[in-house]
Amino acid sequence: MYGKYKLRDLNISVRGLRIWSEFEDFYRYRRVLENSEIEKIISKDSEIIINPIEPVNLPKGITNYLFIDFEKPIVIEPDSTTEVFTTFPIEIGVFVCKDETLEDIDIFSFVKPKYALYGDPKGGKIARYWKTRFFGKIPQLDPLEMGVMKLRIYNLTNSWCEVSKAVFDVYGMKIYYNEKLVSSIAEMKIHSKKVAETNFIDEPLFKGMEKAVELYVARKIPIMSLKMTMEWGI
Q: What's the predicted TM-score (pTM) here?
């Protein structure tokens, strides 16, 4: 389903989702998913891009943080690097495109969003909440619902450290996709048993994967920092 389309040719039906276009004086983009329905009038036939985006926009944008809570923690040996796989939820963005100019016209998801507080009530962060687990190899996932995250964990301390959660600033998230897989690569650098720094790496999991349009780039939102300091526990 992900990819580029001409608006006039748009006609997608998958798992209760329907996306199509109509023409009457103007082109109309239409989408129905469960109880959600949207219609947008587009002045001219244009290129449409549908791809996975940063999963913090539904039901409305209240945060730019993603809080991944692991079912079982992993203990990392001192002064070492460990590479694991985990998952993240997917939201799907629809963009109208002319030359290099993009505009998002729709965002939807097959996954119902949850939010939680990371940290204390005064200084903590509201974040998109996602419960998942660690994997030793790439898991088989539904690419319309979940993506694979390769996470490199650097324990920079001389102590054993337990990791039970990871929080990311998705302004820096880089997502790649193909027909079978959605992926992102991230790092966690542990500075103490309670503090770590996370960031994303701009590279695909496999060669030939398409880089997704970044919603914050399309909206031309100025980015101050691409890293997240986890200061309320790891």
A: 0.94
